[in-house]
Design a protein that fits this description.
By secondary structure, the protein is of the alpha+beta class. The protein has a single domain, classed as Thrombin, subunit H (Beta Barrel), CATH 2.40.10.120. The chain has eight helices and 14 strands. Strand 1 and strand 2 form a beta hairpin.
Length: 296
């Protein structure tokens, strides 16, 4: 079977890609879900891209790259499912005038994983070129079973988070993950090339299959959000960054902290000019023992 090129694969993905913007910043998302019978669709992204807007109920702006059309989503016309343990989120809404693709993208089976060494591509809107959809590629280094994530030998620049990760299977482009983070190598205390973290799309597949209506989705999302707040789940991106700190960096931080503590314990100046020790000694009268010796 003849495989398509990466250029062709990217062209097939572009109509599904959105730039996701909030009052605090921007990232990338892509149409993963559309149900014609109920008239709503879903745009997948990384949770940390929209987390502040989700918590504070801020508006989220979706910019459809292929058509250049914009969709503003407020609390009343959107439903958000979040998966904090894997840094994933999906925004459900009625597209109305927003152009969307009626045919869904091919997605990897929820029980399958890509193997080590497989070439994988991803795209998004990096901060250094926020208006351009940029393409990246690398090879799968490892699959982390406990974190449902791929480590990929490639970069993920700020702004690309939430973008689609895909592979070429013959003449088909298959979605296999969502860009989540980039972990640099800090073994020597400085940032060196690291790995890109790609999250598995299985959580989306498990949740969306059972949805029958937009109203049902809203109820489940509200219940889901309440459970997450009660559990107080830590953001996985924060965990990755914390784990990636090198011993050198941590030792340096401890030294700085110790120096600060020492400086705090120093006595404060009284405001009076200190008298030199030599001056005090000159004004002191001679000891009696010395006078007796001089007399004798």
């Amino acid at each position: 079977m003849t495989s398509i090129t990466w250029t062709k694969a990217l062209e097939l993905i572009k109509p599904y890609v959105f730039k996701v913007s909030t009052p605090r910043g921007s990232g990338t998302g892509f149409q993963l879900f559309y149900r014609e019978s109920t008239g709503f669709c879903g745009v997948a992204t990384a949770l940390h891209v929209i987390e502040h807007a989700y918590d504070w109920e801020d508006p989220i702006k979706l910019f459809h790259y292929a058509s250049k059309e914009t969709k503003m989503l407020k609390m009343a016309n959107r439903v958000i499912f979040t998966y904090p343990s894997v840094d994933l989120a999906i925004i459900l809404f009625h597209p109305e005038k927003c152009p969307i693709e009626k045919n869904s993208l091919q997605v990897i089976d929820k029980d399958k994983r890509k193997k080590q060494g497989v070439e994988i591509g991803w795209c998004g809107f990096p901060a250094i070129a926020p208006d351009d959809l940029c393409f990246f590629t690398g090879r799968i280094s490892s699959w982390l079973e406990g974190k449902s994530s791929y480590l990929v030998d490639g970069v993920a620049i700020n702004g690309v988070s939430g973008g689609p990760a895909f592979t070429i299977v013959g003449d088909i482009t298959e979605i296999c993950g969502v860009v989540s983070a980039y972990i640099p190598n800090r073994a020597t205390g400085e940032s060196l090339p690291g790995v890109c973290v790609i999250r598995d799309v299985a959580p989306y597949q498990q949740a969306l299959q059972a949805l029958k209506s937009f109203e049902e989705a809203r109820k489940k999302a509200e219940q889901n959000g309440t459970e997450q707040k009660v559990n107080s789940i830590e953001s996985p991106v924060t965990k990755e960054i914390t784990k990636s700190k090198s011993p050198v960096t941590e030792r340096t931080a401890k030294k700085k902290a110790t120096a600060k503590k020492v400086s705090v314990k120093k006595p404060k100046a009284s405001g009076r000019t200190p008298v030199p020790k030599t001056t005090i000694e000159k004004k002191m009268p001679p000891k009696k023992s010395r006078r007796r010796t001089s007399k004798s």
